[in-house]
User: Fold DUF6208 family protein from Limnofasciculus baicalensis BBK-W-15.
Amino acid sequence: MTTSTSNPTPKKPLPTPLEWLWEIPLSFLSFIFSRILKVVMQSLTGVFSASNAQESPEWQLVSAKFLEKPVKLLWAMSRARWNLHAMVSIVGPLEVKEVISIDITSAQKSAKSWTVVLYTTPSFDTIDSFSSLTVSGENQWESFKVQPGRYLLGLRYYHWTPTVEVPTVKVDGVKVVEAKTIPAPRDVNGFYRDLIQRKTFLHVWLNYYVFSLLRFKQWLPEKFVKDVFLPVPNPETRFYYGAVKPGEVVKFELNPELVANYYIYYSLYSRECFPLDWYPISESAHKTAVNQEKSLYIVRIHPKFSKEAEFKNEWVNINTCSDI
Assistant:
């Protein structure tokens, strides 16, 4: 399993007097509120998917329609950080005794790169995964062997075709989810840009702490920051993340070997964790536009050809700096 990591910086930033007086205390209160809300949302089983009300569960594409209800948007923002570069679908909860099987031919013909991740519900803990990098391609069906319980499947398509198919799923040998064809234009994730228009005080309070968490992450245990900021990461992806102050840019210095063998995806979020911008990076040296507000960034580095592709930490240098 690939270890997620945050980007190291040479110096530990010190809070200003104003941050000690205002930002840090409010961030601490926001963090406590976010933990309480997460427990409350976790107890509301079935909030994430309309499939609970269906006799036959179906794949649900994460879209404007999927997030139409305010409670679903709140649930999503309390559980994960938006993956803006993948076409994401989920199905569940599924009652399973022994095995979940997925017909991967749908994924193979729908996307250049794809991942299926198994989660528990309602805690949303990652249990297992397989992907275009790990399957042999010789079998039509790939399976997860599990303990009896309720599970979710998360499907991520990268570099998808104009029309995709989400796969058939069997539970304990019985077909429970039918394959479904979905139109998938290049801008299928364009709805993310509109989510910030739905911002309320509740969203601000939910994620106010995140900017301080990342700005002062060098003072905190790395595992704590990772677990809080990336609660449901893709197991095959390496993560670099941080806070960006107004007037700063994110500067990349990447080894050509990394660029040749890995997909590199940059995402920028508001301090409330609403999407602002995202795009792939395909050159060794890159500098983002000047930031206009307190924001957050995530860089996802995902293998192109092999899960075991060589990776060296020194290949990646990502820092924030003033645009001078």
Remarks:
- The CA atoms of residues 15 and 21 lie 10 Å apart.
